[in-house]
Amino acid sequence: MARAVWKGAVTFGLVHLPVALYPATEETGIGFEWLDRRSLDPVGYKRYNKRTGRELKPQDIVKGVKQPGGRYVVVSDEEIRAAYPKRTQTIEIESFAPAAEVPPYTFQKPYYVEPTGRAEKVYGLLRDTMRNAEVIAIARLVMHSKEHLAALMSSESLLLLVTLRWQAELRTPRALGLETPAGGQVKPEERKMAAQLVASMTHPWRPAAYAEHFTAAIHALIRRKASAGKARPVQPLEEYTAPAETNIVDLRQLLADSMRRGKRAAGGSAARAGRARRSA
Asked: Each residue of 260-278: pLDDT tens digit?
């Protein structure tokens, strides 16, 4: 049974949906290890004080951010959690958007979302509502000490959460000095032949038809060269403490209250805009 890498709750309006996240992908490359050429002993690394060269124990290492003048501000894990407590336990839906409007290059890593506690009803309602409306939910969460933008979407029978790249992380073609290719003068016959070629190579999407061959070739090489065989150590997943589960009660009332709250917020914004225009 897979282990959850994050446990908390999806929130939208006043609705609270306890969930757990599971990685939807796995690495399939070769797990090469660094070895001592002379003895084939595994090669490790040490954490050491760069000024003195002295090796440090894990409990003596803290997180810090360098400041002007060479000074550092040290922060603990507890201070980090206290500075942003809500995001560490919730996937807060901020809006919904048509799925086609989110560019694929912003996608990072997918996770399966499983309901926990007695949240199946709300889980199914959110999944089916997004599927019927053909939208995805845009949300925020903190995972592995980092805040992520994420897309929550309906995928077959489960919800899928995909972390997204922030706009500030994306590099534009202009920033890279790339120019739009002119394309040149294309003859009608050439366009027709190109269209025919693409049509002849167009098939329904079958992911099982595509396999990564490099890893298989390296495994074959290793099998040919292996004499004694050395097992690689398995790295365990991180453990996470689950927040207290909250039972869902009176879902219809929660949804109605959420809609009224949204309308009040919209009305307040309009009133403020009107006062600003009159005072201008």
From this structure: 776 676 666 555 555 555 5
- 12, 41, 148, 254, 259 from 265: Cα distances, Å: 15, 64, 25, 16, 10
End-to-end CA gap in the chain: 63
pTM here is: 0.64
Neighbour tally for 168: CB within 10 Å? 5
Residue carrying structure tokens 């396999």? 211
- CA 258 to CA 268: how far, in whole Å? 15
What fold characterizes domain 1-25+78-166? Ku70; Chain: A; Domain 2 (2.40.290)
Task: Classify residue 84 by its DSSP letter.
Answer: S
For the segment 40-77, what is each residue's pLDDT rounded down to a tens digit? 788 888 889 988 989 999 899 988 888 888 888 888 87
**For residue 5, what are its two tokens?**
């890498």
Helix (H) or strand (E) segment spanning residue 226: none
pLDDT digits (tens, 9 = 90+) for 207-233: 888 777 777 776 776 766 664 454 344
Is the Cβ–Cβ distance between 151 and 157 less than 8 Å? no
**Helices 251-279/120-133 angle, 10° precision:** 50
**Angle made by CA atoms 245, 249, 253, in degrees to the nearest 5:** 135
Beta strands in the chain (DSSP E): 6-12, 15-23, 63-66, 72-75, 90-98, 107-115, 135-143, 146-155, 158-164
